[in-house]
Structures are given as structure tokens and as C-alpha cells.
Design a protein that fits this description.
Strand order of the largest sheet: 3-4-2-1-5-7-8-6
CATH superfamily of the largest domain: Acetylglutamate kinase-like
CATH topology of the largest domain: Carbamate kinase
CATH architecture of the largest domain: 3-Layer(aba) Sandwich
Number of domains: 2
Largest sheet: 8 strands, mixed
Order of helices and strands: EHHEHHEHHEHEEHHEHEHEHEEEHHE
Number of helices: 14
Strand content: 15-25%
Helix content: 25-40%
Length: 373
């Protein structure tokens, strides 16, 4: 793997479009200037972009965003081509070659496809290409969508072992309150740990053209911090904002991982981001301590409740009694089995012919568990 510094730049729809939800080509030209500048500093950038649907609606002359899926996917089909051409022109003016990479969860839920995607990114960067990445909205349906490009950007950052993710947003960063409602809200310049307080100040999507909000950015930061990858959320239209971020200047909110991150292998990163969670396990305080501080696997006796419906082999969230997300892992039992086992101790499980296999076997093995705290 290359030792050169790798930078992922995520651009939200509200940043990339005008107030009329049309692509802002002047912004693209400015973006290209900054990308060329960071390349000159030795960075290998990857762009994760939004706005394919908005771009397609513009080209199709459709003023209001449709609500039916075929129209949205048709707009995405037109928009992907037009948006890709716009990036190619803006960066081509600096003699920078681009490529288009379209992904869905179907491409990353499969372990082999995930690794092939990683190898493709590695080779593109070796060839000095700037990949332009987007979700494949033309074929995506709810079951295989990432849901927002913050998650996609985090996945790409983990895929390429990025040194930094910069999210260009329509707000300055994370505030201690909603700045749209409270003029006294203060910007949080640095976050070292995502706890209940940080989660509480993250709201929903605030724009009609985007699908992500601060909550999705917090979820992305949680995984990246466990992987040892810093992330900056900043006002995308601020002058020199990308250059300031890569130079370590105070801009927006910087999510800083621990000096010694969790032992989190590529497989665990894939589990954390590569596939959608099918449900959740709520654990008691003893299990929480064993997972976070003890490096243990999760046993059935530590589970106090379940959420959703999952099968053996699915990805599930691990939550504590307060609802905070501790991690994500691949479960080795079905929802029905876990529900039947709730409240039983080890000896009671051993005596139960239907559930005896859960007495000693981990529900989620440590090798299949990504812990975020």
C-alpha cells in the first residue's frame, strides 16, 4: 500500500448546488483549484460527491424534485453523466485525470467485492487519478442504499486507509446547540470522544436537497475515530477551506481519534460500514465493560434486549442500556434464538436442549466485532 497521504473530500448536495438546486459550476472550479493545490503538497485526493439527482433534474428541466422512485432514478442516470463531465472539465483544466466510481451496499456487503473495490482505488491513486465517487442512485433501492454520502465517504476513507476525511457542508461544523434556533450556539472546534452529549446535539438533515445531517456525520466520525482516521466537518464555501483543513488549521469541527486507536482490522471496518445493520442487541453494564475495556466477545448472558429481526450471520448494532452505540458485529444466532435465551444464565442455557449451543459460544465473536469506544 502507498505511503503517500490520502485525502477523502466529501461534498454535500447543499454545498454543491445553488439556492435553485442547480449545480454551482463556479464552486466546482474553486474546488478544482484547491484539489490541484493539495496534490502539489503531496496528497492523493478522492472526491465523494452528491447532487447527481439535482444535476439530472436541471438537465431534464424538472423544477420540483419528484417523489416517485423511477423519476428520481432516471434523473440520477442523466445527472451522473453530466456531473461526471463537470468534474472532468473542472479538474482537467489543471491536467488532472478523473474517474467515476459508483457504489451501492450490494457492492460492499460482499467481502470479496469490498476487497476488489479497495484494490481498484489503490490502483487509481497509483496512476495519479482522482476518483469521483457517488452512490449508484440509478439502481439503488432502500435495501441497498447507503442512505447518505457521509456513510459512503467514511467507507471510502476506510477502504483506502485515508489520512483525513474532509466533509464540506452547509454549516460551519458541530455546535453545542442548533444554530438555526439558538443564535448563542457555539461551535465545537474539536471532538475527542463521541458520547451521549455529542449525540444529543446532532440533529437531522436541514436541507431539502440532501439526505444527510449532523447525525450521519457523527455516525461516520464514530467509525473513523475507531479506525484512527481524523475527520473535519466545515463550511464548504469558506475560502481555502480544504487547504486549511489539510494544513491542520482550526476550521470547522475536527474529530480527533485516540493516539492509539482500537485494534480494528480491515474485516472489522467492513463489518462497521460495509453492510446495513439488521437489528440491535442491548447489553448490560457487565457486558459493556467486557466489550469496551476487556476486549471480550459478546456472550448471550450479557444481552438484556433485542431490536429488529435478524438472522444468523447478519450485521447487528451493539448498544448499552442508555441506547448509545458501542459497536457493530456479525451475530451467530437468529433473533428468535436470542429472544428465547434472554434472562437465562449459563447453567440454564446448558440445560435447555434448544439453546445449549448459546451457553459458551459467543453471540458475536471478537474477530467479528468493531467496538467504537
Amino acid at each position: 500500500m502507498s505511503t503517500e497521504r490520502r485525502l477523502v473530500i466529501k461534498i454535500g448536495s447543499s454545498t454543491l448546488t445553488t439556492s435553485e438546486s442547480q449545480v454551482d459550476y463556479k464552486f466546482l472550479d474553486n474546488l478544482a483549484d484547491q484539489v490541484a493545490a493539495v496534490i502539489a503538497q503531496g496528497w492523493k485526493p478522492i472526491i465523494v460527491t452528491s447532487a447527481a439527482i439535482a444535476c439530472g433534474l436541471e438537465y431534464l428541466g424538472i423544477k420540483e424534485r419528484p417523489k416517485d422512485m423511477p423519476s428520481l432514478q432516471a434523473a440520477a442516470s442523466v445527472g451522473q453523466t453530466a456531473l461526471s463531465a463537470s468534474y472532468a472539465k473542472a479538474l482537467g483544466d489543471h491536467d488532472i485525470l478523473t474517474s467515476l466510481v459508483l457504489l451501492t451496499r450490494r457492492d460492499t456487503a460482499d467481502r470479496h467485492a469490498y476487497l476488489h473495490a479497495r484494490d481498484t482505488f489503490d490502483r487509481l491513486l497509483e496512476l495519479n487519478v482522482v476518483p469521483v465517487v457517488n452512490e449508484n442512485d440509478t439502481v439503488s433501492v432502500e435495501q441497498i442504499r447507503f442512505g447518505d454520502n457521509d456513510t459512503l465517504a467514511a467507507l471510502v476513507s476506510c477502504l483506502v486507509s485515508a489520512d483525513l476525511l474532509v466533509i464540506l457542508s452547509d454549516i460551519e461544523g458541530l455546535y453545542d446547540d442548533d444554530p438555526r434556533k439558538n443564535p448563542e450556539a457555539r461551535l465545537i472546534s474539536e471532538v475527542n470522544r463521541i458520547d451521549a452529549k455529542v449525540e444529543a446535539v446532532a440533529g437531522d438533515s436541514g436541507t431539502s436537497v440532501g439526505s444527510g445531517g449532523m447525525a450521519s456525520k457523527i455516525n461516520a466520525a464514530r467509525v473513523l475515530m475507531a479506525a484512527g482516521i481524523p475527520m473535519v466537518v466545515c463550511q464548504g464555501r469558506r475560502p481555502r477551506v480544504i487547504l486549511d483543513a489539510v494544513e491542520g488549521k482550526s476550521v470547522g469541527t475536527r474529530f480527533v481519534p485516540a493516539e492509539i486507536p482500537h485494534e480494528i482490522t480491515p474485516r472489522k471496518l467492513w463489518i462497521a460500514l460495509g453492510d446495513a445493520s439488521r437489528g440491535a442487541l442491548v447489553v448490560d453494564e457487565g457486558a459493556r465493560a467486557a466489550l469496551v475495556r476487556g476486549g471480550s466477545s459478546l456472550l448471550c448472558v450479557g444481552v438484556s434486549a433485542t431490536e429488529g429481526f435478524f438472522d444468523d450471520g447478519d450485521i447487528v448494532d451493539i448498544k448499552d442500556s442508555k441506547g448509545s452505540l458501542l459497536g457493530r458485529g456479525r451475530i451467530q444466532a437468529s433473533h428468535d434464538e436470542v429472544e428465547l435465551a434472554l434472562g437465562l444464565n449459563r447453567k440454564e442455557l446448558e440445560r435447555n436442549r434448544l439453546l445449549s449451543h448459546l451457553a459458551d459460544r459467543p453471540l458475536v465473536h471478537r474477530d467479528d466485532l468493531a467496538v467504537f469506544e
